[in-house]
Design brief:
This is Membrane protein YkvI. The chain has a single domain, classed as Hydantoin permease (Orthogonal Bundle), CATH 1.10.4160. α4 crosses α14. It contains 15 helices and no strands. The protein is an all-alpha fold and 360 residues long. The longest helix is centred in the N-terminal third of the chain and has 33 residues. Helices cover 81% and strands 0% of the residues.
Length: 360
C-alpha cells in the first residue's frame, strides 16, 4: 500500500507538471487538439501513449543514472558537449516561462481578487520560497492536493457537457486543417511538455529509484493527463466554433455554470500556475547548483528575483523567439528519448555503464 501511495504521488506530480495553466485556460487543448475537429480524440490518444511510454523511460533512466538534474539526461541523449548547450537553452526558456507564470499569477490577483499586481507577485514568490525549502517532498505533497481538485473540476465540466445539446459534437466537427499539421500536433505537444517536465521528473526518478513505483506512476500519470485532455476537448468541442474567440476559453465556460464554479476555476488557475512554477524553479536551482556552488536557498531567491524583474516588463517578445526554437529542439529530444527507450526495452542502453541494463 505504501508503494501504491508513492506511485500516486509520482502520478500526481507528473500530471501537475505537464498539465499547467495552459490546460486550465483551455488554450493548449484548443490549439493542439480541438481545432482539428473529429481527429481530436485520436490525437489525444497518441499524446497519451507518448506520455506513458516516454515519461516512464525518462524516470527509469534517471533512476539508473542517479541523475542530479536534467543536464545529466541531456548529456546522455545529446552527448557531453551538445548536451551542455541544450541544457543552457532549456535554462533560458525555463527562466522565461517562469517569469511569465509569475506575471500571470500577479494578473490573476489583480483582476479577480482586487489586490495589486505587485502584491500578487510578492505573495506568490513568498509561497514558492517557503515550499521549496522542503524540497521534492513538498512538490509531491502539493501536487497530491491540487491534482485531485483539477480532476474533480474537469469531471464537473464533462458532466455538464454530456447533459447539454452539443455533447456529441466532438465526433462530427469538420476541419479544413491539413492532416499533416493534425498528426504533427500530438508529437509537438508531448515533446514540448515532456522536455520541459524533465526539470522535475529527472530528479524525481533519481529520488524514488524503485522501477515498479516509477513505471506505475508513469502509467497512472500519463493516463490521467490523457483523461484531462479528453475532458477539455469534449467541453470545448460542444461550444465550437464560438469558443475560439476567447483568450481564456474555459473561463467563459466556467462563467456559464455560475459564480461558485467560476471562483473554483480562478483558484485552480492559480494553483496550476503555482505548482508548475514551484516544480520548474526546483529543477532550475538543481541545475544552477552544479555550476554555482552556493546554498540552494540563495539560488532560489536569485531565480525568484529574476522572474520578478522580468515580470515587470513582460516577456512576450523574447518567448516569441525562444518558443519556436525550443519546439524544434523538443522534437529532436523526443526522437532521441524514443531511441533511448527502445534500447532500454532491449536491455542495451546505448551509453549506460555496464550493469545498468539489469535495473531496466
Amino acid at each position: 500500500m505504501r508503494k501504491w501511495g508513492l506511485s500516486l504521488q509520482v502520478a500526481f506530480t507528473f500530471i501537475g507538471t505537464v498539465v499547467g495553466a495552459g490546460f486550465a485556460t483551455g488554450r493548449e487543448v484548443l490549439q493542439f487538439f480541438t481545432r482539428f475537429g473529429h481527429w481530436g480524440a485520436l490525437l489525444i490518444a497518441t499524446s497519451t501513449l507518448l506520455f506513458v511510454w516516454l515519461g516512464a523511460k525518462m524516470m527509469l533512466r534517471a533512476a539508473e543514472m542517479r541523475a542530479r538534474s536534467y543536464e545529466d539526461m541531456n548529456k546522455h541523449l545529446f552527448g557531453d558537449r551538445l548536451g551542455v548547450w541544450v541544457s543552457h537553452l532549456m535554462l533560458v526558456v525555463l527562466l522565461g516561462v517562469n517569469a511569465v507564470m509569475l506575471a500571470g499569477a500577479g494578473s490573476l490577483f489583480s483582476e479577480h481578487l482586487n489586490l495589486g499586481y505587485e502584491s500578487g507577485l510578492l505573495i506568490t514568490m513568498f509561497a514558492c520560497f517557503l515550499l521549496l525549502r522542503k524540497g521534492m517532498n513538498a512538490i509531491l505533497t502539493v501536487n497530491s492536493l491540487v491534482v485531485p481538485l483539477m480532476l474533480l473540476f474537469t469531471t464537473v465540466l464533462v458532466i455538464d457537457t454530456l447533459n447539454g445539446p452539443g455533447a456529441g459534437r466532438w465526433l462530427t466537427i469538420e476541419t479544413d486543417v491539413s492532416p499533416w499539421a493534425a498528426w504533427l500536433s500530438p508529437f509537438l505537444y508531448a515533446a514540448f511538455n515532456l522536455s520541459m517536465a524533465q526539470a522535475v521528473l529527472v530528479p524525481l526518478g533519481a529520488k524514488i529509484g524503485d522501477p515498479v513505483t516509477l513505471r506505475r506512476g508513469a502509467w497512472l500519470g500519463g493516463i490521467g493527463i490523457g483523461a484531462m485532455l479528453l475532458a477539455g476537448h469534449l467541453t470545448l468541442s460542444s461550444r465550437m466554433p464560438g469558443v475560439q474567440q476567447f483568450e481564456i476559453p474555459m473561463g467563459g465556460i466556467a462563467r456559464e455554470l455560475g459564480p461558485w464554479i467560476h471562483w473554483i476555476f480562478v483558484f485552480l488557475i492559480f494553483m496550476e500556475i503555482f505548482t508548475t512554477l514551484v516544480a520548474d524553479i526546483y529543477g532550475l536551482t538543481l541545475q544552477l547548483q552544479e555550476r554555482i556552488k552556493i546554498p540552494i536557498s540563495l539560488l532560489t531567491v536569485a531565480v525568484l528575483l529574476f522572474c520578478f524583474a522580468a515580470g515587470q516588463f513582460g516577456f512576450g517578445p523574447l518567448l516569441s523567439i525562444l518558443y519556436p526554437m525550443f519546439g524544434m529542439l523538443s522534437l529532436g529530444w523526443l526522437l532521441l528519448m524514443g531511441r533511448d527507450a527502445s534500447h532500454l526495452r532491449q536491455g542495451k542502453p546505448p551509453s549506460a555503464p555496464p550493469g545498468d541494463s539489469d535495473a531496466a
